[in-house]
Design a protein that fits this description.
Shape: elongated
Oligomer: single chain
CATH topology of the largest domain: hpI Integrase, Chain A
Strand order of the largest sheet: 1-2-3
Number of strands: 3
Strand content: under 5%
Number of domains: 2
Largest sheet: 3 strands, antiparallel
Structural class: mainly alpha
Order of helices and strands: HHHHHHHEEEHHH
Radius of gyration: 23 Å
CATH architecture of the largest domain: Orthogonal Bundle
CATH class of the largest domain: Mainly Alpha
Helix content: 40-55%
Length: 265
């Protein structure tokens, strides 16, 4: 059996039945396309793949100078794929069973110094609607450590400025409540009260009308736009070439947040 059809079935399975995110499905697809190309060169069918073939494939990734973490991700993809193939009776033996993951070298994360953070937060022009929106988004990222996808998914009703917290939906549709610092509360108050109506003009109604931060047409494009905007602003004020990466998932060195009463979890 050719590998392409089982790959398609597996990707449909993880997207529809497992409910995995689009990013995860895309990563699975990229990894499996690489393995499919390898199998075609070796003229391997799905049933012919052995443990040695998988070891050789992973070794080929190392020869391409890929990092251990990337090779380990490919192995996770292959484990899930062949486990799926086994449960669907497409193979009789799982060749990925008991394959050891490569050792991953741990490194310290990049970070922004306090003066770089202050310069970054001062980058947006607070006299324009876009500038106020960007300042509020940066302050919320800095104060809460939200992921970018969680930030753009925030609705106005998710912001409890009286209590000083935000409610967000993260990975796996899990809900959590996160304390919000005073600076972020202040930036949000100004943005929502004075400038958000200007951004809303011409954007239409629908679900996007309830979002706290507006300005992009879709969630995917919104994520890309926020990442690109943060990257440009961080590059303009940071001496570290990796500092902007620290901001993208919202994991940043934080100021000590102002005390806020959050509901019990």
């Amino acid at each position: 059996m050719e590998i392409s059809n089982p790959i398609t079935s597996f990707l449909t399975h993880v997207r529809v039945e497992k409910g995995l995110s689009a990013n995860t499905v895309s990563a699975y697809r990229r990894d499996l396309v690489k393995f499919e190309n390898y199998a075609k060169k070796k003229k391997l069918s799905l049933e012919d793949v052995t443990r040695d073939d998988l070891v050789d494939f992973l070794a080929s990734l190392f020869r391409q100078k890929l990092e251990s973490r990337t090779v380990a991700r490919h192995l996770v993809t292959l484990r899930n794929f062949f486990r799926f193939a086994l449960t669907q009776d497409l193979i009789t033996v799982d060749p990925a069973l008991n394959l050891e993951s490569p050792k991953i070298r741990r490194s310290l994360p990049g970070y922004l110094r306090l003066e770089e953070i202050e310069r970054l937060l001062a980058q947006p022009d607070d006299k324009t609607p876009i500038g106020l929106r960007d300042r509020a988004m940066l302050d919320v990222l800095y104060s809460t450590g939200l992921r970018v996808s969680e930030l753009i998914g925030l609705r106005v009703m998710d912001l409890d400025r009286a209590v000083g917290c935000v409610r967000c939906i993260g990975k796996g549709d899990k809900e959590r409540v996160v304390p919000l610092g005073k600076a972020a509360q202040g930036a949000l108050t100004v943005y929502l009260a004075q400038f958000r109506p200007g951004l809303a003009a011409g954007n239409g109604g629908g679900a996007s009308a309830t979002r706290a931060f507006r300005g992009c047409r879709s969630a995917t494009r919104n994520c890309r736009a926020v990442r690109s905007r943060v990257m440009r602003r961080s590059a303009a004020c940071s001496s570290s070439s990796l500092a902007w990466r620290t901001w993208i998932p919202g994991v940043v060195p934080r100021r000590r947040p102002a005390k806020a009463t959050a509901p019990d979890m």
